Amino acid sequence: MDILSLLMEGFAGALTPMNLLWVIVGCLLGTAVGVMPGLGSSMAVALLLPMTFALDPTAAFIMFSGVYFGGLFGDSTMAILMNTPGQASAIASTFEGHRMALNGRAPQALATAAIGAFIGGIVSSFIVVFLAPTLAELSTAFGPAEYFALALFAFVATSSVVSDSVFKGLASLIFGLGIATIGIDSVTGIERFTLGAPQLFDGISLVTVTVAILALGEVFYIAARARRDKANLETRSAGRPWLTGTEFKEAAPAWARGTIIGLPFGVIPVGGSEVPTFLAYSTERALDKRRKDPQFGDKGAIRGLAAPEAAGNATTGMAMGALLALGLPVSATAAIMLAAFRQYGIQPGPLLFDRNPELVWALLASFFIAMIVLLFINLPFAQLWAKLLLIPNHYLYSGIALFCGLGIYATSGAVFDLLMLLGIGVVALIMRRYGYPLAPLMIGMVLGPLAETSLRDALLSSVGDFSILVSSPITWSLYAVLAIFIAVSVITAIRGRRKHLTSQLETIDA
Amino acid sequence: MNVTEQSGESHIDIPESHQLPGPRPVGEGTFWEGRSGLIMPAILTAFSLYLLIGVLNMDVGNAAFPGPRFFPTILGIAGLLVAVALTIQTIKYPMHPENESGRSWKFHSDYVSLAWAIGGFFAFAVLLPYLGWVLAGSLLFWTMTRAFGSKRPGFDVLVSLMMSSVVYLAFDVGLGLNLPSGLLGGGF
Which domain of life is it from (chain B) (predicted)? Predict the structure, then answer.
């Protein structure tokens, strides 16, 4: 098996003592950030991104995979213990997971989550290893028109799925796309929207935008609420962090179903793992209703936690595959990883497997290592991680603000970028305050240049004939899927609104 | 009587803040109640106009059809349309954020905290090259502890100095990132 020998070489590359150290450091840091209330895995990656520039690319990406998956584990730990999911992908785990914790079964809930995340992650890593080279080959058939269709798909999907209002999503997307146009135009070399400032010739760095949106804006938002909302944090219970045979049998089919639901979403750009986790949760819920002894509700059902955890990590693993093979970031975190690749002068996509095979295979191997390390540091010690909450909030967030400043100054060395960070951070604060989703901004910022250049390349080659955008079978199928997608979300939105109206009428009657 | 519309849950009631102790919210009973969200369409309009004005002033020479103006023009126009839609949405459905603190506030957000946080970061950014990392960093850390309502400002000064020194040692001396030494320069 060719792929297996490549993977083994990857393991050889990743298993050097130094790289192993970076995986473990990444896992610990990621879990630590993920455990903090309100901070999720994408923030962990954003904060630690500038730090990794001091490392060589392979070590940096190996550490990244640790940080990323660690953040996911930490997220669900907190979702279960405190009912404070670090980001949207952990919300589905809070429903049954937190109920289990309230019911004195916190350790079992944590174990279910950790094992579920492990299964989802490992299965998706395997699939990525075998599928990614094929996917990469397939994507060589992609021309400008196909890439534009793909980018358009990502834009529509992220801005409509994630937010409560389509317009909020679109507004966020337009900010992202607009920011990406600032700087020298890559096709003609003409400067755009720079106001003549030389600091803007290279555009606004994706790292600055990421840290501003995901970290500094978040700190400001929490500052604005810190003395308003009463914090209600309680850890409960200790006990065996292991599952009994019965519990294991109970959870096993849910882990499997969750993984299967999660996998395809890794290559569909719908803005991360919110959708699959909720889908997995509601599937389990529906199946539960048919049982003789429904488990969902007061006590917390082990299956309702197992499935979304597995789905979340399955999606994440696959998303990494899509990023490596297609150069297509399907979530905000993948977008940051893409930025990191570019910072090193590496362009993910079909050519990556030919040009930097050692890096790719070492990275893929490090996924497996990260999963195993995380299982070890999370299964027995999840309760210990909760102790991190004893750090007073005012020191925690001050430290994060300090790290934001450090990261940006370390990459740019300019006060200008710090002020840009502050400005975008304030906009991010306002967006959070009024419930605007931030993922479309990130996706727009990352895929904007790809969308623009491929659109213009396509139109230039056809001398302004728009029909070139729909001239190949690949574009047809992409637009067809997009049309179905829009139709489905419009129908669900109308149904949701109708339900909403009836519930409003009922309250009026009551 | 007004229907509060917020995150899917709705109930007909006088907003809770009426029964809560504390100052009356600013803008209560006026047009702006629940409509401060109009600031977002305003920002979006400003951004779209910036793009469109930039497009008009752009010196493109004789680039072929989908030139550098093409994409930003679409964005600017789309931005204006979305801003209009958001304005209509906000005016039609005012938003009342949840308040669980048990009292009412002049503003939903804590502007004193925000002033400490944003002002502190601004001071840090501007003063960094002059003060150096250790001093500017501790200034940032300290103002942030103020923003988050720490009750021991004196002790926090020590914590801040320690934190930024540790970061300096780890990242400048340890990992070789280039941080300014500023006032304390040369010594380490």
Answer: Bacteria
> Are B82 and A167 a contacting pair at CB < 8 A?
yes
Are residue A372 and residue A492 in the same domain, yes or no? no
Same domain, B162 and B72: no
Beta strands in A253-334 (DSSP E): none
Burial degree of B44 (CB within 10 A; 0-12, 13-18, 19+): buried
Each residue's pLDDT tens digit in chain A (510 positions)? Answer: 577 888 888 888 788 888 888 888 889 888 888 877 667 777 778 777 777 777 788 888 888 888 888 888 888 887 887 777 767 777 888 888 888 877 777 788 888 888 888 899 889 888 888 887 787 777 777 788 888 888 888 788 777 765 567 889 899 999 999 999 999 888 888 888 888 888 888 888 877 888 888 789 888 988 888 777 655 444 444 555 667 778 888 888 899 998 988 888 777 665 567 778 888 888 888 888 877 777 776 677 888 889 999 998 888 888 888 888 877 776 767 777 887 887 788 888 778 878 888 888 888 888 888 888 888 887 777 667 767 667 787 888 898 899 888 888 877 888 999 999 999 999 999 998 888 888 788 888 878 888 898 899 899 888 888 888 888 888 888 888 888 878 877 787 777 666 655 555 544 443
What is the count of structural domains for chain B?
A: 3
Distance to chain B for A108, nearest Cα, Å: 31
ipTM of predicted complex: 0.85
Q: B3 contacts in A (CB within 8 Å)? A: 504
pTM of the model: 0.81
Nearest-angstrom CA–CA distance, A197 and A454 = 27
> Which H or E run includes A464?
none
CA distance between the termini of chain B: 67
Number of inter-chain CB pairs under 8 A, A vs B: 222
Q: Please list every residue in chain B whose beta carbon sits closer than 8 Å to the beta carbon of residue A456.
A: 66-67, 70-71
Examine the fold and report which residue of B107, B133, B163 is the final residue of a domain before the chain moves on: B107
Sign of CA dihedral B160, B161, B163, B164: positive
Q: Which residue of B has its CA nearest to A190?
A: B60
